[in-house]
Design a protein that fits this description.
The protein has 15 helices and 8 strands. By secondary structure, the chain is an alpha/beta fold. The longest helix is centred in the N-terminal third of the chain and has 14 residues. It has a single domain, classed as Alpha/Beta hydrolase fold, catalytic domain (Rossmann fold, 3-Layer(aba) Sandwich). The protein has an 8-stranded mixed sheet, with helices on both faces. Helix content is 43%, strand content 17%.
Amino acid sequence: MTGPMRLPGFSYRREDIDGTLINCAIAGSGPPLLLLHGYPQNHVMWRHVAPDLARDHTVVLADLRGYGDSAKPDPDPAGLAYSKRTMARDQAGLMRKLGLWPFQLIGHDRGARVGHRLVLDSPGAVSKLAVLDIVPTRHVLHNVTRAMATAYYHWFFLATGHGIPEHLIGADPAFWLRSLIGPLLGAGAGIEPDAMEDYIRCFSDPRTIAASCADYRSAASTDLADDDETFAAGQRIGCPVLALWGTQGFVGRGYEPLGVWRQYAVDVRGTALPSGHFLPEEAPTEVIAALRGFLD
């Protein structure tokens, strides 16, 4: 197994945020912009998008706690170590420590869920939020259908207790990643071997497997409770939101994304792009164009 994949032109550092080391890569100058990856990836997923955005933004690519080369605290029974509230606190702390505040935020998959919570918990931190190929966790879990459970079976598998997913994934991490990612890609799309190998490298660490399972367990427990409380209190995202989703993915088939997001935010726009789930890797040109029409 080779060492970490590095993106050319980006400088790397690990910042201590309240005792948790967060790995990040930084490039460019201009308005601050934080990019957060999804499951089962790391910051490398932005390799086709970030260099372009760094032409006129200070771009920060961060690995979420438990993923990539960020620290992997032990999961706790209450689900707090990997709640979106805790993960959001990491990323807000990172941007404060870097002196990049306020900032714009782009999140894909789990990173978008962290971004959603960050905006709610840190009013004024984020001036614009882009969410890629998700609807809010609360909406997903309150509207479980057979189609959703089939498309997102891993939500329930990873949340299973008793060490079951950890044991099974740990037996062959490469098989797990390839078998999960493949069906979520659009027709004819693929992930370059060097990027896939970096994702496999990270998931070859049992701590990454444990942390990512804890992430999904928190989604179905602590995060849902936090989201229900926020929603009941009438709190909505105050900054402009851009929602992008793939024409070949479940989000577009299973939901009306703009209608859903308008229940959670006051200013929402967006569109579908010709892609499966992994928009920044499958349709980077279209993603860049959509982001450039939205970002400051």
